[in-house]
UniProtKB/TrEMBL annotation:
Family: Belongs to the glycosyl hydrolase 1 family.
One Pfam family linked to the record: Glyco_hydro_1
Entries under SUPFAM superfamilies matching the protein: (Trans)glycosidases
Phylogenetic placement of the source organism: Bacteria, Bacillati, Actinomycetota, Actinomycetes, Micromonosporales
Protein name: Beta-glucosidase
């Protein structure tokens, strides 16, 4: 057994994936195009011209992939549903073949004793909705609520945890401000409608899932401890703004029922024209968990002259780096979790680590083992400090389509040869298997 601290009985260890990154079969089973299909097929957008057309071919290989999870001993599997596989245009009646696929997947997990943790939106908005304005359009939030109801009606009796949105901050920032993710927009002003409609979609989905399922509901945001580059007033102010946008913009409205101070800079319009009466009541409905995705802290300085953003991110030196070049700072996860507890107190629900992992190419991936071990020690330290953490899902089961990086970055416990689709478990797979199987033996 790896030399790690013990976790409370019932603590769940699992793995995470996302639909566009692994499924492939983009033209099969009635699936409609998503913004990632469009973005990936736009020249110059993805490293190497890669697309998710085939990815890991999970759509056809799901049974053998579930067998891999069973071999791993995973207690939980967090995966996402492709909205355009359920509603090809993002509205209207459900596509039966799409729901049938996820129905088989959930049943396959149950047969193997693995809890399904289902994400409704992992960035792959149906292209038809983007053509009508996407998340700038309030109507998209309404359509999301209807989609959540369709999925809840079909799967709600077996799902163990619902995650409405994955990393709304990243989708907002990289997809709508910086333009390096789909839909590739660079909105340097009037960004608030995107953020608000994502949050409203979450609230409408909570309502729908309450009607159709008894499972707890959450969302999963990418959180990051924020470190000012210096003690100067300028750097500390820039860090405060960054902290507000990444860590509080998509959490305060849900847990506190209000936007964080300073959010108004995200729009030049009248806030009351965006945030309608009753919206915050919908958004702040109680959730039964909080999903936290963690990769690294953020070092923030004041922006250089002429930069349209109110902050600048700097490289963090003095730590090991993943193949992606991200610093490995395990204690940042403890800092983050304790900081959430300090901010929200009794309003903080039980926490799931819904994603954390590192890119490393080798089959003998001791680097990844050390990364996950550092995470788990940090989680145990946060639990000892009073944070109620219920589970940890590492990213990811498989090497996959890593968004704008294509197939360059490899996050999997399992290596995938994308020419042959051969799966080869890495050293980290066998190491993590010991953790998962030991946890299963102590589960109540």
């Amino acid at each position: 057994m790896p030399d790690l601290p013990e976790f409370p009985p019932g603590f769940r260890f699992g793995v995470s994936t996302a639909a566009y990154q692994i499924e492939g079969a983009v033209d099969e089973g009635g699936r409609g195009p998503s913004i990632w299909d469009t973005f990936a097929h736009t020249p110059g957008r993805i490293r190497g011209g890669d697309t998710g057309d085939v990815a890991c071919d999970h759509y056809h290989r799901w049974e053998s992939d579930l067998d891999l999870m069973a071999r791993l001993g995973a207690g939980a599997y967090r995966f996402s549903i492709a909205w355009s596989r359920v509603q090809p245009t993002g509205s209207g009646p459900a596509n039966a073949a799409g729901l049938d696929f996820y129905d088989r997947l959930v049943d396959g997990l149950a047969a193997r004793g693995i809890d399904p943790l289902v994400t409704l939106f992992h960035w792959d908005l149906p292209q038809a909705l983007q053509d009508e304005g996407g998340w700038v359009n309030r109507d998209t939030a309404m359509r999301f609520g209807e989609y959540a109801e369709l999925v809840g009606e079909r799967l709600g009796d077996r799902v163990k945890l619902w995650i409405t949105l994955n990393e709304p901050y990243i989708h907002f920032a990289l997809g709508h401000v910086q333009g390096i993710h789909a839909p590739g927009l660079t909105m340097m002003s009037d960004q608030l409608p995107v953020a608000h409609h994502l949050l409203l979609a979450h609230g409408l989905a909570v309502s729908a899932l309450r009607r159709t399922s008894g499972a707890p509901v959450t969302l999963a945001n990418n959180h990051s401890p924020v470190w000012p580059a210096s003690d100067s007033d300028e750097d500390r102010m820039a860090a405060a703004v960054y902290d507000m946008v990444q860590n509080h913009l998509f959490t305060d409205p849900i847990l506190l029922g209000e936007y964080p101070p300073g959010y108004e800079f995200l729009t030049t319009a009248d806030v009351d024209s965006i945030i309608m009466e009753g919206d915050l009541e919908v958004i702040s409905q109680p959730i039964q968990a909080l999903g936290v995705n963690y990769y690294n802290p953020s070092l923030i300085s004041a922006p250089p002259a002429g930069d349209p953003l109110p902050f600048a991110r700097l490289e963090i030196e003095g730590y090991p780096k993943t193949a992606f070049g991200w610093p490995v700072v395990p204690d940042g996860l403890r800092e983050l979790l304790v900081g959430l507890k300090d901010r929200y107190g009794d309003k903080l629900p039980p926490v799931w680590i819904t994603e954390s992992g590192c890119s490393w190419p080798d089959l003998d991936d001791q680097f990844r083992i050390d990364y996950i071990a550092g995470d788990l020690r940090a989680v145990r330290a946060a639990i000892d400090a009073g944070v109620d953490v219920r589970g940890y899902c590492t990213w990811s089961l498989l090497d996959n389509f890593e968004w704008a990086e294509g197939y360059e970055q490899r996050f999997g416990l399992v290596h995938v040869d994308f020419d042959t689709q051969q799966r080869t478990p890495r050293k980290s797979f066998e190491w993590y298997r010991e953790i998962c199987t030991a946890a299963a033996r102590t589960s109540p």
